[in-house]
Every structure is written in structure tokens, then in C-alpha cells.
Amino acid sequence: MGLIASVIEKTGIPTVCLSLLREAAVKVKPPRCLFVPFSHGYPLGKPNQPELQHRVLAAALDLLKAQGSEPILQEFNPH
Amino acid sequence: MARLEELKLTHRLFMKAYRYRSVAWSPGARLSKPLRECKLALITTAGLHLSSQPPFDASIRGGDFTFREIPGDISVRKLKISHRSTAFEHTGARQDRNLVFPLDRCRELVERGELGALNRRHFSFMGSISAPGRLIAKTAPQVAQKLRDDGVDAVFLVPV
User: Fold this and answer.
1) Residue A58: which domain range?
2) Which residue in chain A is spatially nearest to B131 when comparing CA positions?
């Protein structure tokens, strides 16, 4: 996931990823990454909970506004 | 946050030993306009595909590095899941594809005027690629080129 984001970013399109596993994201270092406190298989939180899914989506898309040379790794606050 | 300790022993051992690769992307790309004017594309690694497309192939050594194009007008309920990894729980995504491919949520953002548009197509990979050389050299650049051809302004990527 982070590798695909990096390849796309390199071609000039800004990317943002969700991440479920900090250990992976800090090593792959994609450009913008939102850590989410959910289990594997549940990146947007919970099924059939549009409000929670929208909060995750909004937090991720908000990271697109940042641009820099260093990876941006931010934690999602579910509350 | 998912924790490494939650995974099965075989997956934990694999991930502890796995030599993560990275791709140099710095300096990063810049969003050229507000989100309400941007065209967004989605990428999932949940192994989603249309019933008319071949499923992903878990028997490929090093992982299936191919991708499937998902038409922008698809009903997400019709998408099949062929991710075979036991490293994650599939129940939630079977109940609601938006959990791993939030196309309906993005459509709602467009309706609200918070997002400009969605691309005419999105892309699906199957994660658990242990040997990503062909992904980095071949298929990820192919997808990047398609996104550029489509004039996509930003990409949201969702793992499982």
C-alpha cells in the first residue's frame, strides 16, 4: 500500500494512505499516512457505520493539504 | 491500532523477518486546488474485483502483483473479494464493502460539495505481496500512468 502510494506520488499526484500497522508504515514511509486504531480488515472502522467512516475519510483527506519532503504520519482520534 | 501481536504466529514471524522496502518520493506532490475542486481516485488492497474479472491468484510466488480496474459507477455490493490472506478478518468487508473501499462515502462527499469529483475508474490490488519488485517496477507505475491520463488530482489508498 505504502509502496503504491510512493510510486504514484513520485509521478506528481498527491496521495494519502490509511495504515493499520505502525510497524509497517514507519518503515515504508509513504508520503501521508493516517494511523487508524482498528483491526486488520476494518480500515474505515466498522461496517455500515457511515458516520464513523466519514470521520476517518475526512481526517485522511485533510492530510492531502500538507506537502513536504518528510513523511506525514498522523494518528486518527476516534473520539 | 492493529498490533503485530494480534496476528497469527506465522504472520507475526513473517512480518518480523520481512525486509520492508521503500520508494523515494521526496519532494512530495502538491495539491493544486481545494478538495472541493479535486478529482479523487481510490485504491484498495482488499483484493476486490468484478465478477467478470479473474480473481487474484494467491498461488503466485511472492504475491499477486496485478491490479483490477473498478468502474466508477459500480455498485460496491457487487464487488467480489478474492483476498485469501488469513491475516485479516473478512466478515466486515463482506457486510459492507465501504469498510475497505469507501466509494459510497466519497460519492456522498461529492454530493455535499466537499469533493470535486470521483475518477471514472479506481484500482484494486491484493495485499500480502512479499516480493514487491514487480509491483514497484511494473504494475504500480502502470496504475500511476492511468491516473495521470485521467487527470486525477489526488489518490486515497486503503489497506486491509
Assistant:
1) 2-75
2) A3
> What is the model's pTM?
0.92
8 Å CB contact of B31 and A37? no
Nearest CA in chain B to A40: B88
Give the A:B interface size as CB pairs under 8 Å: 201
Model confidence pLDDT, tens digit, residues B45-81: 999 999 999 999 888 888 889 999 999 999 999 999 9
What are the extents of the domains in chain B?
34-158
Residues of B whose CB is below 8 A from A26:
none
- List Cβ neighbours of B147 (8 Å cut-off, separation of 6 or more): A8, A11, A13, B41, B119, B155
Q: Which residue of A has its CA nearest to B108?
A: A54
For residue range A56-69, list pLDDT tens digits in order. 999 999 999 987 78
Report the gap between the CA of B52 and the closest CA in chain A (Å).
Answer: 24
